[in-house]
Amino acid sequence: MNEKGISLSAHTMKVLIKRELISSIYGWGLYIAVFISFLLSSFILRNFMRGIGQNNIFISSYPLNLPLFISVVIISLYLVIVSAISISREKEHGTLEVLFYGPVSSSSFLLGKYITDMLLYVIILGFFAVYFLGVSLLTNLGFTLALGKAFLVSIFLASCMISFGLFISSLTGRVRSSIVWLIGILLAFLGIWFLENIFIHIPPESLSSWLLYIQKTLSVIYHFVNWVSPFSYLSRGMESIRIGSIKPFLLNIIYSTIYTVVLLLLSIYILKSKGVRA
Amino acid sequence: MRLKRASLIYNIIFLLILIPGLAITSSAQQEEKQPSINLTPLLKEQLVYSLNVFDGKGWSGSFVPKTESTIYLIANKDNAICAKKTLVYFWPITVRYIAAWRTLDEDVKGVLEVLKDGKIIEKLKKQDTVLCYPEGYWGEKVVLYKGNEAIKWYKKYKKAEDEYYKALNKYYEARIEYRKKMNKFFEEIKKRREKGEKGPLNIEIPKEPEPPKPPNFFVTEPRKYYVLNLPVGKYKIRLRAKDKTIVEGSEKELLVFTARRREGVGYEIIPGNRWTKREECNDPANAIYAAGKNVLYFRPYRQDEYNELYHNKLLDPQNRGRIENWKWVHTEPIKNVQLLLFSKDNLLKRIDKKPYKVEQIPGPELGYNIVEFKKGKLPGEKPTFEGYQLILSENLPEKSYRIYLQKEGENNNIISTSEREIRLVKRRNANFLFYLSIFPLIIGGVMFVLRYRKIEK
User: Fold this and answer.
1) Residues on chain A touching B402 (C-beta within 8 angstroms)
2) Which terminus of chain A has fewer Cβ atoms in its 10 Å neighbourhood, N or C?
């Protein structure tokens, strides 16, 4: 691609990003999603505070990390679904085909979508910062450096989630199938991750034989899903913060970046080879 | 007619007696026929490995049945293992195999070969090993000695034991003498009182002999084991018999692992309001969140972090665990330190370790008080626990405090891994968190109004 082509592509991306960003900022969806995530976080935190109240003492590593994790998952799901809908809708309505007759290429289109979602996530991170600072002031649970690190890790989870969403929507044609596939796969990943984390804290001796069978099966599935599911990248990042070691922290960031790049390249390739018609 | 009626009555009475009797007999017979719950385990001869392995704290014993294919060991530590023939049975109540050592305990002879990537890296012969309990048999510390050192320690213990028994014999003799002297003493008093002597009699009271103190350490009898000391890695072991064949069932995988984090400081925290329910604050990332008034007693330990599955399997090869989990293992209590309480960078308090006694509140009401233990109050009385007392209350001026450990007499040397944060949470504000959740909607509303105005313009 020559210099002119690159600048045209960059301009196209800029226009696409601006359009999408303004539409999201002025819409209600983003704020409602953030509100729901904060509501859930508040519920968890209130129960945590009640737990301290009953026992007078509670020992925990980072009590704000779990609410942050839940908020990040909800917001990422929102961003992914919105992004997938917009791609599939443009495919279905044929606007994508019209766009592709112009200076828009599959790479600039998908990268534009990815950057828009990432920028939206950075804006949402601002909301997170305000909320958790407020929580810290109200409860004295502490806005620690570790929480700051968790914020940084969450950017990479969002990146994994968004690229995963773009990959799924590049595979599917229609809005409905895109949403069903995306929600289905992500909920399955989330369910496996959630159940596996529950089973980790239950000693195998206390499990009945059929629960032990489920746990063993789940463990095998989790082993496979571990590198495919975007949620694993966040939990690994959180674990590296807990250990306080910089090496696994940086490694997780590198893995997340590789995951994003691979999925984006695959999405571009699929969109190119399958075409833009639904 | 009368006779007929009488015989009928007799028959009815006879039947009334007979039927319940038969019923009772048949029920008794039924009871006899019922199967009894008789759980006799089926004993099977197996080649097993008997272990005395380093568990992070000391050396502990276990055995590896045929069903377990892997032996777990901690790297760069002496671990004693030995192949034995014994009878093994499955005990369904605890769902594990148990060795009947008393019935059969036969050493399997041969050379232990250690293989790495298919190549033999070590050929081991058995050597003498002993377990030494330097704080006595009931003490927490255990050390494994091998070879000449093992024999030296055993002899040392035997000598101490012999000396103790000799001293004990002398003590018993002295005790008999003492009794005799005491009897004479009382007789003398009786005589002189009977003679009419009054006031102090000035008779020397016989001295009671002191019992000898037993050895303050314990050493087990020397036993022949193979001593493995390997770096981290995966190995295989097998036993080669004298006729150069491999002993059947002796091949096992060997997983040698190490701690992920070392030399950490963990705390056992005894909350004053429920002293039997102790908390652990082991991970350096842990913070102590406290609400309301409470008294906390800290007990610091040195600790290493191991993989849960590996460490559980090391303690008992039949144990379970999760490879994804990690656990802190307390290695030894930290002695001769002070607990420092900091607020920001200001040292607020130096706390010394003190003994405490839990005293039940007298009367029918439930409850207890934790008081500082004073020696000599009652003979033979011991403190319930020792720890560093920290009093917390809601009215403390700062929201957050930090604790550290410092070696006694070393004013500038803080044990870095001992740092923990104590945060005093405001639980009253917990419900306000829901109001905080609304602010994205407020911003959304502002953006909506801005857009509306823009469109109108």
Assistant:
1) none
2) N
Torsion of CA B444, B447, B449, B450, to 10 degrees: 180
The verdict on B249 touching A (C-beta cutoff 8 Å) is: no
Residues on chain A touching B456 (C-beta within 8 angstroms): none
pLDDT at B307: 93
Kindly report the nearest CA distance between residue B87 and chain A, in angstroms. Answer: 25
Distance between A199 CA and the closest CA of chain B, angstroms: 9
Cβ–Cβ of B430/A26 closer than 8 Å? Answer: no
| Interface contacts A/B by beta carbons within 8 Å | 144
Q: How far is CA B221 from CA A240, A260, B153, in A?
A: 47, 63, 10
* Distance from chain centroid for Cα B115: 34
φ/ψ of residue A131, rounded to 5: -65, -50
Is residue B5 very low, low, confident or very high in pLDDT (cuts 50, 70, 90)?
Answer: low
Instruction: State percent of chain B over pLDDT 70.
Output: 91
Tell me how close the Cα of B88 comes to any Cα of chain A, in angstroms. 21
Helices in chain A by DSSP H: which ranges? 3-26, 29-55, 65-93, 95-101, 106-139, 145-171, 175-200, 209-225, 230-243, 246-274
How much is the ipTM here? 0.83
pLDDT in tens, B393-436: 767 778 889 999 998 877 778 888 899 999 888 888 888 889 99
Distance from CA of A37 to the nearest CA of B (A): 8
The string of pLDDT tens digits covering residues B205-247 is 899 999 998 999 999 999 999 999 999 999 999 999 999 999 9
Residue of B nearest to A58 (CA): B289
Summarised one tens digit per residue, pLDDT across range B57-100 is 889 899 999 989 999 999 999 999 999 999 999 887 777 899 99
Best-predicted range by mean pLDDT (A67-81, B140-154, B385-399): B140-154
Q: Give the per-residue pLDDT at A93.
A: 76
**B contact residues 183-212, partner A, Cβ 8 Å cutoff:** none
Considering only CB atoms, which chain B residues are within 8 Å of A127?
439-440, 443
Domain extent listing, chain B: 41-258, 261-431
Q: How far is A87 from chain B (nearest CA, A)?
A: 24
Q: Domain count for chain A, please give it.
A: 1
- Nearest residue of B to residue A27, measured between CA atoms: B448
Candidate from A46, A63, A127 with C-beta closest to B440: A127
Q: Closest chain B residue to A33 measured between Cα atoms?
A: B440
**Is B425 in contact with B289 (CB distance < 8 Å)?**
yes
Nearest chain A alpha carbon to B436: A131
> What pLDDT shows up at residue B38?
62
Give the SS3 label for residue B203. coil
For residues A219, A222, A227, A230, the Cα torsion angle rounded to the nearest 10 degrees is -140
What domain range is A34 assigned to?
3-274
Smallest Cβ–Cβ distance between A42 and the set B291, B321, B434 belongs to: B434
Q: Which residues pair with B326 in a beta bridge?
A: B307
Task: Note whether B52 and B80 are within 8 A (CB).
Answer: yes
Q: Is the pLDDT of residue B15 over 60?
A: no
CA-to-CA separations, B323 to A8, A223, B376, B412, in angstroms, rounded: 52, 11, 50, 40
pLDDT digits (tens, 9 = 90+) for A15-28: 888 888 888 888 88
Distance CA B230, CA B202 (A): 72
